[in-house]
């Protein structure tokens, strides 16, 4: 997990995930009300778009984009230890490939508190901006990874990759 602070009042969380057996990084944006996918990834994963209600999205730089195409797909997020069916609006201008609203984590006993800079799992709070809690939190997150691999070495390899690439603090 990577935590980035853009401004004092806005934080982002980048989580590892998987769609159609492809590893990816998902942005959890505390300000997002919808889920978005960049059009490049729609093509890369051969996802099927459908017509939907048109929405206008305003980016942080005050640019806007209108989209009326969505995809619904299953995404595996190790933090949640399960697949989630999510609907994304397609955007061409978005610099983030996958952007989900914070409500996606508000179940499964996972809670984020940006005011206190904590993540709660299994009833225990961890500060996600303080290094002294990093090892405990990384171990807890890795225990929640449930890759359906046939051999233990595959699971160990995936845990190692996630620890190296996703569950670090910026």
Could you give the distance between the termini? 9 Å
Please state the average pLDDT score. 67
Total beta-strand segments: 11
What is the name of the CATH topology?
Answer: Cathepsin D, subunit A, domain 1
What is the class in the CATH system? Mainly Beta
- Strand arrangement within the widest β-sheet reads 1-2-3-8-4-7-6-5
Rg for CA atoms: 16 Å
Output the helix-strand order: EEEEHEEEEEEEHH
Query: pLDDT below 50 for ≥5 consecutive residues: which ranges?
Result: 1-10, 130-135, 142-153, 166-170
CATH homologous superfamily title: Acid Proteases
Largest sheet: 8 strands, mixed
What is the general shape?
Answer: globular
Q: What is the total domain count?
A: 1
CATH-derived architecture: Beta Barrel
How many DSSP H or I helices? 3
Strand proportion, as a percent range, falls in: 35-45%
Which structural class do you get from the secondary structure elements? Answer: alpha+beta
What percent of the residues sit in helical stretches (DSSP H or I)?
A: 10-25%
Protein name: Protein DDI1-like
Organism: Vairimorpha necatrix
């Amino acid at each position: 997990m990577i935590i980035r602070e853009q401004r004092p009042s806005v934080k982002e969380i980048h989580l590892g995930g998987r769609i159609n057996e492809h590893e990816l990084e998902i942005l959890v944006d505390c300000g997002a009300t919808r889920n978005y996918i960049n059009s490049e990834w729609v093509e890369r994963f051969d996802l099927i778009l459908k017509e939907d209600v048109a929405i206008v999205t305003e980016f942080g730089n005050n640019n806007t984009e209108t989209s009326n195409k969505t995809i619904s797909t299953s995404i595996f997020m190790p933090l949640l230890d399960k697949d989630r069916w999510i609907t994304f609006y397609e955007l061409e201008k978005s610099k983030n490939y996958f952007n989900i609203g914070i409500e996606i984590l508000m179940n499964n006993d996972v809670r984020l508190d940006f005011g206190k800079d904590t993540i709660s799992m299994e009833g225990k709070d961890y500060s996600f901006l303080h290094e002294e809690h990093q090892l405990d939190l990384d171990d807890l997150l890795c225990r929640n990874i449930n890759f359906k691999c046939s051999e233990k070495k595959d699971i160990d390899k995936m845990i190692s990759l996630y620890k190296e690439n996703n569950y670090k603090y910026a």
